[in-house]
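Reminder to self: tokens first, then the designed residues, so the page reads top to bottom the way the pipeline ran.
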């Protein structure tokens, strides 16, 4: 008989609306500090948040609470009175010395400060969707360990975010000996469910330090206690990142906690193909997945387009696919 998860699991969704006049005014005051060329893409809201909620309502009705993390911005269609919804503003849980912030890493690193948030939670961005029915056991095992995949990768730098990987890895390599952890977790590094990542892991085994991990850009499972423990031992992770109003090369990210969870052995393996990341400029393949339900979790990440009409065409087609899949309002939406 299959044993079931008996503890509460929350979902956390981070969201920003760059078209909000109050937010724009605040942003303009600090915009000169920003060196990230992809800021517009990071903040752009292309109208799919309601489908995130509809996917949760339909395919994860077992969730305890859904936390929407925002900067005093709430969509006009959201039902703030729904019992499963908790709206959290940045100043509810982030130290005032770091506010206002336009840095997603600051927003993420402080999540453990949310008192109402359960020990076990799943982290979403506003472009991450559930694509078919799920169970709590898809995200945590019965012992409370996150479900994930442990595989090796290498950094191929192209932008600011690649520096953040290096910062995360500097902490990881300080905590863990690669040789010892590979020996200890050998059958988590190499298993059939890791699929093609077994090959990459094998090729990177000779290197004495961790060079990066397989990072599926999908929803991730975390334990608050893990985040708290890492930040207590390495306070500079939060302090250094917190001072940056925008993403910076000396940031750390929430991925650090994922790496520590996995290398500590505090995770339960699942298939490398459980979720899939798509770029918005590859919308045709993403729409096919939405229609067929090929992957359980999907992320349709914004991307650069040469022409504005290409962007408009992409978001319209994605919206049509989601509206066909989730035509009815969720319990998170106002009925009128």
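Designed residues (336 positions):
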């Amino acid at each position: 008989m299959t044993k079931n998860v008996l503890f509460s699991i929350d979902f956390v969704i981070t969201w920003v609306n760059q078209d909000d006049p109050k937010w724009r005014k605040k942003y303009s005051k600090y915009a000169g500090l920003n060196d990230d060329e992809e800021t517009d893409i990071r903040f752009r809201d292309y109208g799919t948040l309601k489908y995130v909620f509809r996917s949760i309502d339909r395919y994860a009705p077992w969730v305890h609470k859904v936390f929407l993390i925002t900067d005093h911005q709430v969509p006009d269609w959201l039902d703030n009175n729904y019992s499963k919804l908790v709206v959290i503003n940045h100043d509810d849980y982030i130290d005032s010395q770091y506010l206002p912030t336009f840095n997603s890493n600051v927003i993420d690193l402080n999540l453990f400060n949310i008192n109402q948030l359960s020990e076990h939670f799943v982290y979403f961005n506003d472009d991450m969707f559930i694509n078919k029915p799920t169970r709590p056991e898809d995200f945590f095992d019965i012992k409370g360990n996150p479900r994930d995949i442990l595989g090796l990768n290498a950094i191929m730098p192209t932008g600011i975010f690649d520096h953040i990987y290096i910062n995360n890895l500097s902490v990881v390599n300080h905590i863990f000996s690669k040789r010892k952890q590979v020996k200890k977790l050998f059958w988590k590094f190499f298993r059939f469910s890791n699929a093609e990542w077994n090959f990459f892991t094998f090729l990177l085994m000779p290197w004495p330090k961790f060079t990066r991990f397989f990072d599926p850009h999908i929803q991730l499972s975390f334990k608050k206690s893990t985040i708290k423990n890492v930040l207590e031992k390495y306070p500079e992770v939060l302090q250094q990142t917190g001072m940056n109003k925008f993403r910076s090369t000396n940031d750390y990210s929430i991925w650090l906690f994922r790496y520590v969870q996995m290398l500590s052995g505090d995770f339960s393996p699942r298939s490398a193909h459980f979720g899939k990341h798509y770029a918005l400029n590859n919308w045709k393949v993403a729409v096919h997945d939405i229609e067929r339900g090929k992957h359980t979790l999907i992320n349709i990440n914004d991307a650069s387009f040469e022409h504005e009409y290409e962007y408009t065409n992409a978001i319209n087609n994605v919206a049509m696919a989601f509206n066909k899949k989730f035509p009815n309002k969720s319990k998170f939406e106002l009925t009128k």
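The chain has 14 helices and ten strands.
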